[in-house]
Write a structure and sequence with these properties.
The longest helix has 26 residues. The protein has two domains: 76 residues, no CATH class; 345 residues, no CATH class. Helix content is 75%, strand content 0%. The protein contains 23 helices and no strands. The protein has 429 residues and is an all-alpha fold.
Length: 429
């Protein structure tokens, strides 16, 4: 295992950033010990925001990079990076959080939930939640995982009126895990699959037959398991989608179908051009103009939240190349079982798309090892916020449900059960 000085420093700074993510709750609590709006209070509050952690450490690392390698080398490194994913998540998160898109999604889920309630005579709140936690994540296989995460998290947020710490951690854990595996029905929606599909010649049929049906079953089991375990708490803490619809309808102008269709067209266009930054950013800028002339049917665009999520992912990308020296040899030294288990564990501290990309650079991987790497990466995608790129978007939307900020260790513990379900279906079947 050989490495350069800058590669070692990149790994060290990345490790410090990961440790920082586990301390954000304590840092945020510490900020309250100083006078409000004082320099120390504001500084600690900034350091306690999980979305800025990797951006801060990436900035410090780039300053060190300039000092060690020089300005020209640092610029050359920056030019070599691909920031398409953060830009895409920014654009799709803004579009999918608009009132017309969320209304269309809510009404579609409500229609399906109403049908299920009539056929099986099930409670409205619990049926709504189950449908959201199944259909939402699985839709990520077609509209991409970031879009599915955004819509699903907003629907859950609108239903939750009060919650306990145990309930909200269990809910967000299942959401993260289900979105991570829910995009595995197609080769173009889940980032960890997208990274290797072309290189390994994995087409739609291969993905569906090897990952898709297993992931769909795991998503369903996780959704039903969560609702069954916390059914009493959910009935006490949530309102139905129909109640959400009635409350919003009374305070907002009815959205014309043409406005909804235009918004859906922009969403589809951005998703279809997700791998072409100039194309989807051009569509997004045009969408901003459309949003400005349909203000009557809009809520405030979530630009700040989307930018924070993009900054979070951009910071992770800054460190990606400097993990190859230790990660690629580690992956190459494992057999199939160890590789699957190792991928699950490593995903918790390394974005799963980066993990599969680095694994694809290892020569001579068997077909079984390739499956183990990708299966483990998507199974472990709910263990931490950094494990799967869309997780940051989901947390940003639900962050108000965590008054003291999310505690990464609590999320990790809550995600163990749904992750175990994903492991069972993806490895044992």
């Amino acid at each position: 295992m050989t490495y350069t000085t800058i590669e070692l420093l990149g790994a060290i700074f990345f490790g410090l950033a990961v440790i920082h993510t586990f301390l954000v709750g304590r840092i945020l609590a510490l900020s309250h010990h100083f006078p409000k709006d004082s320099m120390w209070s504001n500084t600690l509050h900034l350091l306690g925001e999980i979305e800025v952690v990797f951006a801060i450490w990436a900035s410090l690392f780039m300053a060190v990079y300039i000092g060690v390698e020089g300005w020209k080398a640092a610029i050359a490194y920056q030019k070599s990076l691909d920031f398409i994913e953060p830009f895409f998540i920014f654009a799709i998160m803004v579009v999918c959080s608009t009132r017309p898109i969320l209304t269309a999604a809510r009404q579609g889920i409500l229609a399906l939930s109403t049908l299920v309630q009539k056929v099986f005579r099930t409670p409205a709140v619990l049926t709504d939640l189950i449908i959201i936690l199944i259909v939402g994540p699985l839709s990520g296989s077609f509209i991409t995982e970031p879009a599915a995460m955004t819509v699903t998290a907003f629907l859950l947020n609108s239903m939750l009126q009060k919650e306990t710490s145990k309930l909200i951690y269990a809910l967000i854990a299942v959401l993260f895990v289900n979105v991570s595996i829910g995009g595995a029905l197609t080769p173009f929606a889940a980032p960890p699959i997208l990274m290797v599909a072309t290189k390994w010649n994995w087409d739609f049929q291969f993905i569906l037959s090897n990952f898709g049906w297993k992931s769909a079953l795991a998503v369903t089991v996780n959704a039903f398991g969560l609702i069954l375990i916390f059914r009493k708490q959910f009935q006490e803490s949530c309102i139905t989608l129909r109640e959400v619809e009635q409350r919003l309808a009374s305070g907002h102008a009815e959205i014309p179908w043409a406005v909804t269709l235009v918004h859906l067209a922009f969403m589809v266009g951005i998703v279809a051009t997700a791998h072409y930054q100039n194309a989807f950013m051009g569509l997004f800028l045009l969408f901003m103009g459309v949003a400005s002339v349909t203000l009557r049917y809009q809520d405030q665009l979530r630009l700040k939240e989307s930018l924070l999520v993009s900054m979070f992912l951009g910071g992770i990308i800054q460190f990606g190349a400097f993990q190859k020296w230790w990660l690629a040899p580690l992956l190459g030294s494992m057999n199939e079982i160890l590789l699957f288990k190792g991928a699950v564990a490593l995903t918790a501290i390394t974005d799963n798309a980066a993990l599969t990309y680095l694994g694809s650079q290892v020569e001579g991987l068997s077909d079984a090892s390739k499956y183990a790497l990708v299966g483990g990466a998507i199974a472990g995608g709910g263990l931490t916020i950094i494990a799967n790129a869309p997780n940051a978007a989901g947390y940003s939307i639900l962050s108000q449900k965590f008054p003291g900020g999310i505690k990464p260790l609590n999320l990790l513990l809550a995600a163990l059960a749904p992750t175990a379900v994903a492991i069972a279906f993806l490895w044992l079947l």
